[in-house]
Amino acid sequence: MALSNARVHYHIAGGTKTSMDRTDWAELSEPVRHAITAYTGPVLSAETASDGLNSAIAMSVRTSTNTIFVKGLRTDHPGVVTQHREAMINPHVLSVSPRLRWHIDGVDGWNLLGFDYIPGRHADYRPGSPDLPKVIAAMRRLGQIPCPDLPIKQAEKRWADYVDDSMDLECLRGDALLHTDYNPLNILIYDRGAHIIDWAWPTRGAAFIDPACLILRLIAAGHTPTQAETSVAQAPAWNQASKRAIDIFAVANSRLWRQIATNDPHPWKTHMAAVVDQWAQHRLYGRHSHRTPALQPARAG
Ligand SMILES: Nc1ncnc2c1ncn2[C@@H]1O[C@H](COP(=O)(O)OP(=O)(O)OP(=O)(O)O)[C@@H](O)[C@H]1O
Ligand SMILES: [Mg+2]
Fold first, then answer.
1. Quick check: is 190 in a domain?
2. Is 118 in the pocket of ligand 1 (CB under 6 A)?
3. Residue 19 lies in a domain
4. Ligand 1 pocket, 117 CB below 6 A?
5. From CA 227, how far away is CA 238, in angstroms rounded?
6. Ligand 1 mean position to 132 CA, how many Å?
7. Ligand 1 neighbourhood includes 198 CB (under 6 angstroms)
8. Does ligand 1 come within 6 angstroms of the Cβ of 98?
9. Hey, which of 12, 23, 24, 51 would you mutate to test ligand 1's pocket, going by the most ligand atoms within 8 Å of its Cβ?
10. Is residue 9 situated within a structural domain?
11. Are residues 107 and 227 in the same domain?
């Protein structure tokens, strides 16, 4: 296994992000606001979220009785498929994610999802963070959900272009339901635990893949590879995986992220490429176990 010579495409979480201007409540047309309030009742106030990159609409709307988080894209946006994926998987992931209350598809050209609002904050992934046990606990709860029989992505296909030998893909095949995008902006910490949000890339595959995806983000936040691997050791899926399977996944991701950063050398993508390369080097050669300085401000993915 080498870290180069990959046939690469640009098609997994984090690979297609461009920031976009958000549309606020006041900018929505009357039919769209009417469609939302038909579900929520009269809206008293609305606040657009400042984090996340993909959704043209990401806002909390407050009524006299509760708050709903509204996430939306234009129906002709190529990324709108992620809205449908989130709607499809949501009933199956309620032990780790906020409930989807409604889905509006096609009012005035918008596709909108209305979730229960989580009054939380983003996870802190730095070494020693008290958030990490909550994140691992959420990952363990997710690991207990049987993968539903739905047309979701398969790990052995998502990473197919990043391995040397197609036989290696057998290591990624499995029956676990995976989130795969452990960007800290996709983890909301609340008083009793962590919610995993933004199910744009639900995937069926080997159970160790989710802990591995978290490892990348922990290294990005300042863990050494060894520290990051120790942090996820509480996840049974990690301990049951073969060393070779993890090595194959690390190398595949280093190729993927290098291509992402080459296509669009945005600082967070370049940082992630360096991080994943560091982890792959650590896996293969047991070196480069120093820290990659965390990108500040942490806005990766
Ligand atoms: N149910 C919720 N309750 C409260 N805040 C939420 C909720 N869902 C999302 N958010 C906030 O909105 C931000 C963006 O949401 P989300 O990650 O789902 O969308 P996105 O724009 O597609 O992001 P990304 O760029 O990561 O794909 C989150 O980082 C979080 O701060
Ligand atoms: Mg997100």
1. yes
2. yes
3. no
4. yes
5. 14
6. 19
7. yes
8. yes
9. 51
10. no
11. no
Mutate to test the pocket of ligand 1, among 48, 57, 69, 101 (most ligand atoms within 8 A of CB): 69
CATH number of the domain enclosing 56: 3.30.200.20
**What number does the ligand 1 atom closest to the CA of 122 have?**
31
Domain that includes residue 97, residue range: 25-116
DSSP string covering 211-279, please?
Answer: HHHHHHHHHHTT--HHHHHHHGGGSHHHHTS-HHHHHHHHHHHHHHHHHHHHHS--HHHHHHHHHHHHH
Same domain, yes or no: 95 and 174: no
CA dist 219 and 136 (Å) reads 15
* Model confidence, pTM: 0.90
Q: What share of the chain is helix, strand, coil (3-state, %, to 5)?
A: 40, 15, 45
Instruction: Report the phi/psi class of residue 222: left, alpha or beta, with left for phi > 0 and alpha for psi in -120 to 50.
Output: left
Average pLDDT over residues 74-102: 98
Q: What is the pLDDT of residues 105-137, one digit of tens each?
A: 999 999 999 999 999 999 999 999 999 999 999
Contact present, 122 and 188 (Cβ < 8 Å): yes
The verdict on residue 8 lying in a domain is no
